[in-house]
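#onboarding

Welcome to the new folks! Below is a worked example of what a typical request in this channel looks like: someone posts a single protein sequence, and someone else replies with the predicted structure as tokens. Don't worry about understanding the tokens yet, we'll cover that in week two.

Example request:
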Amino acid sequence: MSTAADPSAPRKRGRPRTAPDQSETRARLIRAGLAHLTERGYGATGVDDILRAAGVPKGSFYHHFGSKAAFGSALIAAYDSYFITVLDSAFDQTDLAPLDRLRAFTRRAEDGMARHGFRRGCLIGNLGQEMPTLPDSFRAELEQVLSGWQARTAACLAQAPGDLPRALDAAQLADLFWTGWEGAVLRARMVQGPAPLRAFAGSFFALTQGDSPQGRTR
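Example response:
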């Protein structure tokens, strides 16, 4: 999902060149793809849309990716790499309690969606909604990405087991968080506002405090 950082934002350019090198061309295609697919989706985005947005010829696209499906796989990997840095920047704040680190992530995520008027969502969640019409190879790739985010979240929460409800462990809470959060992101796009994100976050964190020792003293 979009957060404080933006993987599709244009990067500052240095001195003009007569022609972009191969790595720059690929990066421009990836940025254009992330912008289009987080807002419009895979099925509604054609290769020509990406080429116009990136300002590169069609031959360059097929040189780097071979097919639209290969491009989609590259976007999944690029988005995952970007999003891991977003999660780690929140979860590595050791001056905060683990649950507060997750709260910090939700606030950054809301800010990122707000920057784009809540038109852009999470690439992984968007593609999951389209899965019946996507290349079947995407299924395992998407599940691997979500499992990785969930594992990072569980590792963060496990650092303070005494703060968690006795009925749920860190892995179960991480699973619950990502299932609910992706739905909240989808609905935030539908209503073009933050209410679903705030409602889910409020309910989730209330749950974490419900029967924990910390929650019972409040």
